[in-house]
Write a structure and sequence with these properties.
The chain is built from three helices and three strands, in the order H-E-H-E-E-H. It has helices at residues 2-11, 25-36, 64-69, and strands at 12-18, 41-47, 52-58.
Length: 70
Amino acid sequence: AVAAGAKLTRQFGHASIALDAITSEDGGRKIEDELRGLDGVVAASVSLPAQMARVEFSKQQITDRQIVAI
């Protein structure tokens, strides 16, 4: 189990991205859709109250810097 966990940690990354002034559900969904549309992004969710986006991605396909730059 430990080896499997280490393998997953090497393959997948997580990024938390601060958002600014996203006030509507539609705006949050648009950001989620754009993030999910990136090659290598496995999952994305936006929290309006926290003004944060959480992204899970394949490190072999995209980097956290590339995600934040979008």
